[in-house]
């Protein structure tokens, strides 16, 4: 199918890395850019995709050995069926029942991102796992300890040999393997995508919702990725319990207070609860929130005046957002828990 991520698709960037792997028994994976999508931000030449690297990353993603007490995995907060985020609580949970300070972001189309975390505290995908691994309220572990534990396990000795040519387990290899798995988490086959390819049509109400989206939402949630990969103020008052000032934590610039990363809306039907602190449980609540904003100079321009959407218009907007659900992505066995 056009624009899908396939192991047989071709991307010139990845071909550069094939030379480095020519003398090893690895199976290159070529990354396909969906039609009319921008060029990815990730430099594949520095971490060529292979089937062996992807499978190692998949094992690591689902393995709680990455945490201090071997109870929390990446998948604990990033579930495939819910768009690779969690839905059973507002804030991420860690070892010993500890609770984090933010709702987990969905993992999707990461090759196109240059900013990670709600506050942009990480600017490279390879480095992103260090945050949850070392966080005292998430995995509470060190990369050195993770490498040591993995080195003792015959299965991982084999997997690292398959992926990197020898059984040496290093922090860099762990991070690169996780990136290889996450880079292929590409969602590009929702009904919205099929409509844009001329393979399907919106219903009348979905079409009205799309028009509303383009008028009021698209400046921040830019198509086709449905994010601008930037940081915006969304009109939410600070949570006085968490006292989370967002991007300000990183930059210490007053203009960044209460600015958070614009999340992708792909598969948003299933990625509840919403916002950085998970305060809204439904899309209807989110739309109602934005519908009441206005006359606030800090807001992005399209939200700077009241939307004044009617009940029917709010429903139409939610109906459109549901067309961003990619069931193939949510159920693709390549991304599921490895059974072997």
Structure commentary:
- The structure is a single chain.
- This protein is mainly α and 340 residues long.
- It is 31% helix and 2% strand.
- It has 12 helices and 2 strands.
- It has helices spanning 12-18, 51-61, 130-134, 143-151, 154-164, 171-183, 191-196, 204-216, 248-251, 283-291, 311-322, 327-331; strands at residues 231-233, 259-261.
- Strands 1-2 form a two-stranded antiparallel sheet.
- Helix 2 (51-61) runs antiparallel to helix 5 and helix 10 (283-291) crosses helix 11 (311-322).
- It starts with 11 loop residues before the first helix and ends in a 9-residue tail after the last helix.
Percent of sequence in beta strands: under 5%
Widest β-sheet, arrangement of strands: 1-2
Assign the structural class, choosing from mainly alpha, mainly beta, alpha/beta, alpha+beta, or little secondary structure. mainly alpha
Helix content: 25-40%
Mean pLDDT: 92
Tell me the distance between the termini: 28 Å
Number of helices: 12
Annotation, overall tally of beta strands: 2
Contiguous uncertain segments of 5+ residues? 1-23
Order of helices and strands: HHHHHHHHEHEHHH
Instruction: Report Rg.
Output: 20 Å
Q: Which geometry do the CA atoms define?
A: globular
**Can you summarize the main beta sheet?**
2 strands, antiparallel
Short description:
By secondary structure, the protein is mainly alpha-helical.
Features of the shown structure:
340 residues; 12 helices; 31% helix; disordered N terminus
Q: What is the secondary structure topology, with strand pairs?
A:
Elements: H1 12-18, H2 51-61, H3 130-134, H4 143-151, H5 154-164, H6 171-183, H7 191-196, H8 204-216, E1 231-233, H9 248-251, E2 259-261, H10 283-291, H11 311-322, H12 327-331
Antiparallel strand pairs: 1-2
């Amino acid at each position: 199918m056009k624009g899908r991520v396939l192991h047989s698709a071709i991307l010139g960037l990845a071909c550069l890395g094939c030379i480095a792997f020519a003398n090893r028994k690895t199976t290159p994976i070529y990354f396909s850019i969906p039609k009319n999508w921008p060029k990815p931000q990730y430099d594949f030449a520095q971490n060529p995709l292979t089937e062996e690297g992807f499978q190692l990353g998949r094992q690591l993603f689902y393995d709680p050995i990455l945490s201090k007490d071997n109870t929390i995995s990446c998948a604990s907060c990033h579930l495939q069926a819910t768009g690779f985020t969690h839905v059973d609580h507002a804030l991420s949970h860690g070892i010993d029942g500890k609770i984090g300070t933010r709702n987990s972001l969905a993992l999707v189309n990461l090759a196109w991102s240059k900013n990670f975390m709600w506050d942009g505290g990480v600017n490279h995908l390879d480095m992103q796992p260090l945050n949850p691994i070392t966080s005292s309220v998430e995995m509470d572990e060190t990369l050195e300890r993770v490498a040591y534990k993995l080195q003792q396990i015959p299965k991982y000795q084999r997997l690292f040999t398959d992926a990197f040519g020898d059984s040496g387990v290093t922090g860099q290899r762990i991070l690169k393997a996780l990136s290889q798995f996450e880079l292929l988490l590409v969602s590009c086959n929702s009904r919205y995508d099929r409509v844009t390819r001329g393979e399907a049509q919106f219903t009348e109400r979905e079409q009205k919702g799309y028009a509303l989206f383009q008028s009021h939402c698209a400046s921040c949630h830019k198509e086709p990725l449905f994010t601008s990969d930037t940081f915006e103020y969304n009109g939410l008052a600070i949570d006085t319990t968490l006292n989370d000032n967002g991007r300000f934590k990183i930059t210490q610039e007053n203009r960044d207070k209460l600015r958070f990363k614009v999340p992708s809306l792909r598969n948003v039907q299933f990625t509840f609860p919403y916002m950085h602190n998970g305060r809204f449980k439904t899309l209807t609540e989110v739309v109602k929130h934005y519908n009441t904003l206005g006359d606030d100079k800090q807001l992005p321009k399209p939200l700077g005046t009241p939307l004044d959407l009617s009940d029917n218009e709010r429903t139409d907007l939610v109906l459109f957002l549901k067309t961003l659900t990619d069931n193939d992505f949510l159920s693709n066995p390549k991304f599921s828990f490895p059974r072997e």
